[in-house]
Amino acid sequence: MAFSIPALDTLIHELTGLPGIGEKTAQRLAFFILKSGKDYSERLRMALDAVQLQVHYCPQCFAFTDQELCRICSSVDRNKTQVCVVEEASDVIRIEAAGTFKGLYHVLQGTISPLDGVAPSDLRIHELVERIHDSQLDPVNPIREVILALDADLEGDTTSLYLARLLHPKNIKLTRIAHGVPFGSDIDYIDQRTLGRAMENRVEL
């Protein structure tokens, strides 16, 4: 019979459910938690409990927040006429870290993927359309531009095309972030899809 400790096996199994965590990494994390003692385990448990109790989806943009509205949606300093559409709440953090975008966000919570059984109705697309419609009743800050910041893959392209067709009658500016050769990259190592996208998104000098 193989050596087994049920409680440890359960912890390892739960850790493998985290994105990017395989069996070996889960084992290392589990042993680290054990070696760190009860104080660390208790702090970890309290942190997990707190995030479940305090953090929820913002009812306007569907990013995570611990307030009634997230800090971005409730800020008076943001440009309310621009909305950047992203796939996941983590994308908001990455774009904010760049420090260049000063508008609002809308998190779809995924992308259209027929192979995975994800349809438009499974995403926050209806809420986006309603948000745009409601904003157009605002004489001061109607949404004038929707920026699609979705991944440059098949699912991202499919979702962008679907949104473009859906939002076209709304008479708003619809843009998509540029995709192409990363800064500092050697063109010899760029795949054909990325290089083709870079050519399409070329700018005049």
Order the strands across the largest sheet as they lie in space.
4-3-5-6
Provide the helix percentage: 40-55%
Average pLDDT, all residues: 91
Q: In the CATH classification, which architecture of the domain at 78-176 applies?
A: 3-Layer(aba) Sandwich
Q: Helices and strands, in N-to-C order?
A: HHHEEEHEHEHEH
CATH domain fold name of the domain at 78-176: Dna Topoisomerase Vi A Subunit, Chain: A, domain 2
The total count of strands amounts to 6
Number of helices: 7
Tell the overall outline: globular
**Are there runs of 5+ residues with pLDDT below 50, and where?**
none
- Which structural category do the helix and sheet elements fall into? alpha/beta
Q: What's the CATH class label of the domain at 78-176?
A: Alpha Beta
Largest sheet: 4 strands, parallel
Distance from N terminus to C terminus (CA atoms, Å) equals 70 Å
The Cα radius of gyration reads: 21 Å
Beta-strand portion reads 5-15%
Structure characterization notes:
The chain is of the alpha/beta class. The protein has helices at 6-15, 23-35, 37-54, 89-98, 125-135, 154-167, 192-200; strands at residues 56-57, 64-65, 79-86, 103-107, 145-148, 173-176. Helix 1 (6-15) crosses helix 2 (23-35). The N and C termini lie far apart (70 Å).
In short:
It is built from seven helices and six strands, in the order H-H-H-E-E-E-H-E-H-E-H-E-H. It is an alpha/beta fold and 205 residues long.
Short descriptors:
single chain, 205 residues, alpha/beta, two-stranded antiparallel ribbon, 7 helices, 41% helix, globular
